[in-house]
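Subject: sequence -> structure tokens, single chain

Hey, anyone have a minute? Need the predicted structure for the following. Not urgent.
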Amino acid sequence: MSGPKNSGPIAAVFGCSGTSLTEQERAFFRDVRPAGFILFARNVDTPDQVRGLVDDLRASIESEDAPVLIDQEGGRVARLRPPHWPAFPPAGRFGELALCDRDAAIEAVRLNARCIGGMVRSLGINVDCLPLLDLQQEGAHDIIGDRSYAADPDIVALLGRASCEGLMQAGVLPVIKHMPGHGRARSDTHETLPVVDASHRALSDTDFKPFQALAGMPLGMTAHIVYSALDPAAPATTSAVVIPNVIRREIGFQGLLFTDDIGMKALGGPFGGRARAALDAGCDLVLHCSGDMAEMVDTATGCDRLTGDADEKLNKALALVADFDHVDIDAEFGRVKELFNSFNVLLTA
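Reply:
Had a minute. Here:
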């Protein structure tokens, strides 16, 4: 990141309110210097407009390579949509293909991720909040559902790794989410705080396994969920038990750790307090997505400058995608379709 150490970025990633920066946003970002940004559907109109917005966001903090994130999973969660961008299938379709042929599913996931990566990288976006390593669970809230590859931890790990590889080949950093596992939640963290009562052993034997398999990935994201067997007093995002003992030690993830959006209703209290609690618990970067100026100002009060350790993790991650492949999206997604057709598995609903 540019700038001297004593004026480095704060440990926050912010959204913005529309398809172009307001003067208030530009001044705020210049003054507080967030570590990066995230885009949502409200920020998207045309390819040229998105490229211009990404350039303006980076210019506001004088950083040519600052992370710009997007949630482009495929299926229900896609900020870039037709007619300007192609639609991609949800993760669950690849899990269905894996039941027929794992090798075919791995190839399809990798190619699909390359296509998504090529698409977003062409806009200047260099981080995609993909893949989910959460497990499909019977009786859980459908906020995860077909966003997950499968119920089998081994399949999720295999396909999750292929997705990460495909994205990085296209110059985009993946974010493994939501640690230590969102699949069991019976409510939507956007609306309320779920409590998962599974035993530590049950979580270790299933939910943690895909994250352990991909613990060497550079970026990860927490879950706003209370795991009563791990820490009954705080959700993982703000838990000084779950982050160091489970995410860092048991799972073994040592990469840059984002919070999920602290604007979700699963968390309570002032935004500065939410940010402070997450950073104190061991998160590296606070994610605030709404673009609401008052909330961003409050969030910034709870954020220190990015630590040397976190800054090093970020720079190492960005270096992984400094060089990348050109992706022929039509040809490579055509191969994805062939793989699904070969096994008579539907690519879309």
